[in-house]
Design goal:
Length: 178
């Protein structure tokens, strides 16, 4: 993993705190990690945490000086894209090709020629919703590798499928793909 360029995108899930552990583990394994976040992800974790872990600016704005072409450049730069955690919203947006903010535009500009991994995290009803299930199937057909979700205690208090895989599992999946 040493020197591997990983584009790490976070969306607005309670599992963002676990995703920070994944970012940290990738860095400790020698990867170069560039994070991007949806605006909703930044309600769960601070930009300072991600910049502090990666020593790189966190991209989240489409129309900001220094970011204008980043949705194209970062896809060329990356050797692997990891969307972690992935909300139902962003999974459905990627499947439909919706590009209405920085993170979704970046994901819409992915050409699926390099490894693309997604670690979903969501309430069971969001996960089993037919729209989400269809989107996951669509993305699998495009070659996207899904890590989890697992069955476990969800933030809503029920034990069901939807829990994001543990950081060690996600790290293992990244290592295997690389
Ligand atoms: C406390 C809290 C926890 C949430 N956790 C999740 C989650 O784990 N998965 C999910 O799909 N949505 C979750 N949501 C809802 C998303 O944040 C919401 O659908 C949002 O529009 C997602 O935007 P994004 O995909 O652009 O980040 C949560 C919302 C709140 C308030």
């Amino acid at each position: 993993m040493k020197g591997k360029k990983i584009l790490f995108i976070l969306s607005g899930s309670i599992a963002c705190f676990k995703a920070c552990e994944v970012v940290s583990a990738l860095i400790k394994n020698g990867a170069e990690v560039q994070t991007c976040a949806t605006k909703n992800a930044l309600n769960f974790i601070g930009e300072a945490t991600l910049e502090g872990l990666t020593h790189k600016k966190v991209y989240h704005e489409m129309f900001e000086s220094g970011s204008y072409l980043k949705h194209i450049e970062l896809n060329s730069w990356a050797e692997l894209t990891l969307l972690c955690p992935a909300t139902a919203n962003i999974i459905n947006k990627i499947a439909a090709g919706i590009a209405d903010d920085f993170a979704s535009t970046l994901l819409a500009a992915n050409d699926y020629k390099k490894p693309f991994l997604i670690a979903p995290a969501m309430n069971v009803n969001l996960y089993l919703n037919p729209a989400t299930a269809e989107s996951i199937e669509k993305l699998k057909k495009r070659g996207v590798v899904f890590i989890g979700p697992e069955t476990g205690l969800l933030a809503c208090g029920v034990k069901a499928i939807g829990k994001m895989s543990e950081p060690a599992e996600i790290l293992k999946a990244v290592k295997e793909v690389l």
